[in-house]
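Progress note, sequence design subtask.
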């Protein structure tokens, strides 16, 4: 199937759980689908290790992953710098997913050292070979997730190259490679719209970046004209970010005790190593606004160990949280304080919301110890707006492309 056929085959998804290292594992995907996720990506798997080390593969993948009854539609993502290892890894999962994705967006130091993810942006020839080898030899489609450059035209040519290599879906994160940690800043939806407008009209295009609340899903679609919206951090701290069916507060901003219990019951049912590896991280993220109000919880979670702590020990933490929240709801004024307060419209287009600390909510990264508002943050690729000179350059590039023979598809 080509990209549009695949997109329709899997139900035209609108909300997508992003691929994240040890974070978008099976249990979290099952939970996220209950809160509105239409399509899920696996965590980023290291292709060479996945293909050659059975022990490593067992820590990443279980017999339940990709199960047609509980875990589809699904895209499996790999990072790689060797076409053959990538193909070997993909062959191991091609009958358990709907597509295989190449990670071209990871900006972390480990990706720099290993020469994969966003650090392949310096080697277009290798990227082409990685994608084309999958495209030519897999029975399922290959897709790709990329980041932008500061240069809008270079970003466009990059996206076109990725598609020409054989990618059927393209997900574009509206941040540059250096935007991470303290330098994360804001994704640029304007460059995403520019790329969408200048790629083939039938190209399946997913936008990634700047999703705080469910309101932002439709705003992103309207701003970028993308087919669907992917979220990583937004989904991790509140899976209700994907709930767009109605205004049910318990779906959009689930109580931490209810969500923690629901997630933990899924892990108990599918008690696999990949799910257990992610437990501690998910507990901390679900409780990120709650734990500071109840500091006794942090050391309880912090001392838990993947291979040593029992499910009974984790159960005690869940029960502790449930007990605390139960006392909160004994307040006779709970109906007055258990509400979501919407702020004024911000310059960046959205609004902030005041959410009770016992409900899941966005995480705002501190920049040098301070939480900054959107209009104080750097915007990706913001120094290169499309001007007349760029338009002329683009016109010349398009004319040259029209004169050139097409490469083999």
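Output:
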């Amino acid at each position: 199937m080509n990209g549009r056929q695949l997109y329709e085959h899997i139900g035209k998804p609108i909300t997508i759980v992003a691929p994240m290292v040890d974070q978008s594992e099976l249990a979290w995907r099952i939970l996220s689908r209950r809160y509105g996720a239409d399509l899920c990506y696996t965590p980023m798997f290291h292709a060479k290790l996945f293909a050659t080390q059975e022990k490593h593969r067992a820590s990443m993948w279980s017999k339940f992953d990709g199960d047609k009854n509980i875990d589809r539609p699904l895209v499996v993502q790999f990072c790689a710098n060797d076409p053959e290892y990538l193909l070997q890894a993909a062959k191991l999962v091609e009958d358990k997913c709907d597509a295989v994705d190449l990670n071209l967006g990871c900006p972390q130091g480990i990706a720099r050292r290993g020469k994969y993810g966003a650090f392949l942006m310096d080697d277009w020839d290798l990227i082409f070979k990685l994608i084309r080898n999958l495209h030519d030899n897999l029975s399922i489609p290959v897709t790709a997730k990329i980041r932008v450059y500061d240069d809008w035209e270079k970003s466009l040519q990059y996206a076109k190259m990725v598609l020409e290599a054989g990618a059927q879906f393209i997900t574009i994160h509206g941040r540059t490679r250096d935007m991470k940690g303290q330098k994360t800043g804001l994704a640029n939806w304007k460059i995403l719209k520019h790329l969408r407008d200048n790629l083939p009209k039938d190209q399946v295009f997913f936008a990634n970046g700047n999703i705080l609340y469910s309101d932002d899903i439709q705003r992103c679609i309207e701003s970028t004209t993308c087919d669907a919206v992917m979220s990583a951090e937004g989904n991790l701290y509140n899976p209700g970010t994907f709930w767009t069916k109605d205004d049910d507060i318990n779906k959009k901003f689930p109580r931490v005790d209810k969500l923690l219990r629901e997630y933990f019951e899924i892990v108990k049912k599918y008690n696999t190593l990949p799910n257990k590896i992610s437990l501690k991280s998910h507990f901390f993220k679900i409780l990120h606004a709650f734990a500071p109000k109840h500091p006794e919880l942090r050391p309880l979670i912090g001392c838990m160990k993947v291979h040593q702590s029992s499910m009974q020990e984790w159960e005690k933490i869940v029960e502790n949280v449930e007990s605390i929240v139960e006392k909160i709801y004994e307040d006779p004024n709970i109906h007055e304080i258990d509400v979501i307060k919407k702020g004024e419209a911000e310059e960046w287009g959205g609004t902030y919301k005041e959410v009770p600390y016992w409900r899941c909510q966005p995480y705002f990264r501190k920049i040098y110890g301070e939480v900054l508002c959107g209009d104080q943050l750097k915007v990706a690729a913001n120094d290169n707006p499309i001007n007349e000179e760029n338009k002329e350059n683009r016109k010349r590039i398009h004319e040259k492309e029209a004169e050139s023979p097409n490469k083999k598809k």
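Residues 40 and 182 are 27 Å apart (CA to CA). Work on this subtask will continue into the next period as scheduled.
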